[in-house]
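Example 82, ligand copper (II) ion.
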Amino acid sequence: MLYSFIKTYSHNNKFTNMTKKYSVKGMNCPHCQAAVTKSIASVAGVTQVDVNLTTGIATVEGNYNEKDLMDAVRHAGFDIAD
Ligand SMILES: [Cu+2]
């Protein structure tokens, strides 16, 4: 519901970016962190990504499809929830 709200705004060109935090599970080391960061950065529309290894929080900015983002992270072998 939040996404469709933002999408409407994007369509009107008043709001092109959203910043959202996700909880990523399964990261144990900097390699995991890098893999998650890379998978998120590869999603179309993502302009900024920060993955915190300690907290497991991924902060993502951009105008992207959330399902694509979650698929990408899961494909990399990690679990993600919003
Ligand atoms: Cu690792």
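Summary: The longest strand covers residues 18-25.
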